[in-house]
Amino acid sequence: MKTNKIPTRIILSGLAGAGKSSVGKALAKHLGYNFRVASHYAREEAKRRGISIQELQVQLDKEPEFDRELDARLVHWGRSEDRWIMDYRLGCSMLSEAASIYLTVEETEAARRVGADSRPGEFKGDESAEDVLASIRDRNENMRKCFLKLYDIDFADESLYDHVVTTDGKDIDQVVCEILMILSNCTTSMNA
């Protein structure tokens, strides 16, 4: 597959369960790029504090310096490196030189994905589908409010992005191929 037109810096954003990490890992592997997950640092902090990622979000509302420090680290890395894909909700604004893609997903599909592939410290495993859906709605809304308060940026505003890709009803390879076609006008198979 020709990749000479593919940008060397790509931001993936979207609400919880849209597939940012899964798609990002697969896309990075396909292109031979580095992959970075912005929330990795927040998850490490939640683990250090012995709380869930949702509880951390509530605490960080009172500690905006943590988010600012995290964003400064991510921006520094993004500007000093090349050939990367980053799962970073604010990346379209913080690293505007990168191609930005917003992944969308229907809420019930997001809840199914998040519930099925829960990360450590996210859920206990006995939550109902309704509990998972309520939790990710809260998480998405808390993130939106936090970023609006800190930066006056609504990361869920699709007009901020170069491209929008719907992930409903598609497997990871289909989403990756769609992104590659968007970014390079590729018409060949990923396996070519």
Outline the structure in words:
By secondary structure, the chain is an alpha/beta fold. It has a single domain (9-184), classed as Rossmann fold (3-Layer(aba) Sandwich), CATH 3.40.50.300. 51% of the residues lie in helices and 12% in strands. It has helices spanning 20-31, 39-49, 53-60, 64-80, 91-94, 107-116, 129-151, 172-184, and strands spanning 9-14, 34-37, 84-87, 99-104, 163-166. It has a 5-stranded parallel sheet with strand order 2-3-1-4-5. α1 packs across α8 and α6 packs across α7. The protein is globular.
Helix proportion range: 40-55%
- Strands, total number: 5
Q: Structural class, from secondary structure content?
A: alpha/beta
Distinct helical segment count? 8
CATH superfamily: P-loop containing nucleotide triphosphate hydrolases
CATH architecture: 3-Layer(aba) Sandwich
Query: Strand order within the widest sheet?
Result: 2-3-1-4-5
